[in-house]
Amino acid sequence: MDPLTRRWRVPALDERAPKSTRDPDVPIHAALGPKVLDGGLATSLRQRGVPPGTPITTWLDEHPSAVEHAQRSFVDAGAIGLLTATFRSLPHLDSEWERHLDIAADIATRASHGRAWLWGSLGPGGRRGESWRDADASTKRAWTQSWTRAADRLGPSVHGLVLETFIDPDECLAALRAVKEARPDQAVVTSLVPTDSGRLHNGQSPRHALEALRLAGADILGFNCGTTPEGVTLAIRACRGVGPLWAKPAGGRNLRQRLVELADDCDWIGGCCGVTYKDIVVLARSVAETHA
Ligand SMILES: [Zn+2]
């Protein structure tokens, strides 16, 4: 059953759209216009009294109702896409990764209550100070297996998967291949972190990186985080036409104006660190007025 039909009329897929074996519930087509995502979960939890720097797994174990309330507030604000709190629950980083993936998927399912698509979030493999570029072959193998196993576990509980907050496009490409191996028919988003100038941290052009990810099978592509909303805005502008785009900029000056502008270029649009449900309300209203 489509989880959204209770509240939204979901248009039939355009007959001209390419045939796909993917889960038909996942909106990878543009028929609905820009779709609003949630904002920064860590920011929302801080506002609910969870101390800054608390690991995500501790959120799940000690503050599950705060996570659920924060996610519900984004859906109530108008988000129709919600990311699970599973960013660091990879087998090589978290000894209780299976339990944490299950808890986070349950919380997001309850918070959305059939009103939003769930995106299973998976992050980079490194601990603090570790990078894909400097990792040896056995470390890279361990991270790759981790992404495959996590996708295998989380995939059936969500509508799609999102590889988010990747600084290194090569690492994101490796994660994409690993996730597609486990879940070949599931929609996968790749989301890189740009610099404030809109380029990538290794100096690469964002368009070049997204084209490589598109060729490797990414269904939706884009950017998240940064220190201001400008980096994601500039990167998205440089990538028009590459494929369905995804943007979750960090908060900062001109955030709401940037979100509204980004909605014109993006298939999925929300926020990252510093973006609250109040910002998502403004975005959702604008999208509803402009793209109704
Ligand atoms: Zn962020």
Topology, element by element:
Blueprint: E1 35-36, H1 41-47, H2 56-62, H3 64-77, E2 81-83, H4 97-112, E3 117-122, H5 137-154, E4 160-166, H6 169-182, E5 187-192, H7 206-215, E6 220-225, H8 230-237, E7 245-249, H9 255-263, E8 268-269, H10 277-290
Parallel strand pairs: 1-8, 2-3, 3-4, 4-5, 5-6, 6-7, 7-8
Helix pairs in contact: 3-4, 3-10, 5-6, 6-7, 8-9, 9-10
The chain binds zinc ion.
Structural overview:
With 292 residues, the protein is an alpha/beta fold. The protein has one domain (36-125, 135-290): TIM Barrel (Alpha-Beta Barrel), CATH 3.20.20.330. 40% of the residues lie in helices and 13% in strands. It has 10 helices and 8 strands. The protein has helices at 41-47, 56-62, 64-77, 97-112, 137-154, 169-182, 206-215, 230-237, 255-263, 277-290; strands at residues 35-36, 81-83, 117-122, 160-166, 187-192, 220-225, 245-249, 268-269. Strands 1-8-7-6-5-4-3-2 form an 8-stranded parallel beta sheet. Helix 6 links the parallel strand 4 and strand 5. The longest helix is centred in the middle third of the chain and has 18 residues, at 137-154. The radius of gyration is 17 Å and the shape is globular. The relative contact order is 0.14. Zinc ion (ZN) binds next to loops.
